[in-house]
Amino acid sequence: MRAHQTDFSGGSVKRNVMEVAIPMIIAQVLNLLYNIVDRIYIGRIPEVGTTALTGVGICFPIISLISAFTFLFGNGGSPLCAMERGRGNRDEAEKLMGNTFSLLLVTGGVLMLIGFLFYRPILYLFGASDVTFPYASAYIRIYLCGTLFVMTSLGMNPFINSQGFGSTGMLTVLIGAILNIVLDPLFIFVFGLGVRGAAIATILSQFVSAVWVLRFLTGRRAVLTLKKSAMKVTAARAKSIASLGMSGFFMAFTNSLVQVVCNATLQRYGGDLYVGVMTVLNSVREIFTMPIMGLGNGASPVMSFNYGEKAYGRVKEAIRFMTVTGVAYTIIAWGVIFLFPEVFIRIFNSDPELIRAGIPALHTYFFGFCFMALQFSGQNVFVALGKAKRATFFSLLRKAFIVVPLTLLLPLIGGLGVNGVFWAEPISNLIGGCACFTTMLVTILPELKENE
Questions:
Q1: What is the pLDDT of residue 228?
Q2: Residue 140: pLDDT above 50?
Q3: In this structure, are residues 289 and 31 in contact, taking their beta carbons and an 8 Å threshold?
């Protein structure tokens, strides 16, 4: 039996989007479990849970940086692949996929080597103290061993989704997430390995996910298959893939940069406690942004395919549906976070001092959360339609040009201290989100209307 495939060229656009988006939303939420489950269990290690959680939180920028390269190639190659499939050019679509796979493997090997050579100074630069460093180093050294698995599972899974196999793409993450949930308590508590056990469980789970992805893409069910003959990298294809993927890369890279700056600034003004609070805030943010990211990623192949097929009316309908749904969701999410902040903090740690400091920080950090939906909508449209320069610019604008300077400057204004760090996020969502979405409206929609 063939896996269910969504036909992007016909039927209801909303249904097309949701047939891919719903499995991807589930997949995004499940993907979050790789790190979230680690943090939940780590935060409950007897006697050292809070310190261990803070130490693992310091590793997030490194993990985000590795993920950034999966976005650079995977999220750059898959829309191009979908557009070529829409144009009926199967051979070029498969070569784009093969080139992406080669780029992911080479980059993964380089990142793993650099990580092993320089993890100690990097962790201290990212906000580690002598107290938290042992936990951070124990986790990251093992996590680095699974770099190639991470690059393969995260970087190649978009090629399953871009062919319309949303449910199969969801299974990639579901299999790994379930394994991670089962293996985490076994390695952490039963075998007594602590944070090392959490890292071992994560890389084993990613390994299985990577095997699943490769088995599907090289099998008979796939429309486009991963072939050795298509893996020879050409400069032109590598440039096209990286140019379009630069947007996703900079979003993840600047997330890593922001985490570094936030951790270092919070260490200065509040110490390990507030670095731990930021770890929790990042975890809660990931929980609530995964559905909106899944919606955008589900709409992206629909927009790419129809743009390649010159069905511009269907592209506009996908944009409208993605935006309205995303804004509605984030307004509801903002209300839930505002009303029940302690519930989400306790998911990760029940330390009274961390809860006391975390509740006001959570209220500040998520203020105006709905503006983030505008950023994601505009960004996804630029990437899906191959508008590489605009996608890259707005990736940099919100994080690198707004959040980082505000994180450094606001703590100095009016004695804000740590509160200044938490205010940087909502201000950037307002400015960056409105700028990105408005630019998309005044540039993309007139183009689509003219072509139509």
A1: 94
A2: yes
A3: no
